[in-house]
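User: Teach me something about this protein's shape.
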Amino acid sequence: MVMMKLSIVSPERELFKGEIKEINLPGTKGKFTILTNHAPLVSSLEKGEVHYTTIEGIEYSLEIEEGFIEVSNNVVSVCVS
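Assistant: First, the predicted structure itself:
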């Protein structure tokens, strides 16, 4: 089974690094979800909650002010503040 690799960083530190099933984000044009094998994407993020589920089924949420996301080849990179 193909899983996505997620890295969430802030200017101060790495907030999460691991494999996930899905991630939900507050985009500047509306909320959206990234699943396995998503098309390549770069998007800005606005204030809101990021929700993601690990491959073990554990759900996490993170409050952000702003940021951006890049998705390519099941690698999701999120930079937030």
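Now, about its shape. The mean pLDDT is 97. The beta strands are 4-9, 14-27, 30-35, 41-45, 48-54, 59-64, 67-72, 75-80. If you'd like, I can walk through any region in more detail.
User: That's plenty for now, thanks!
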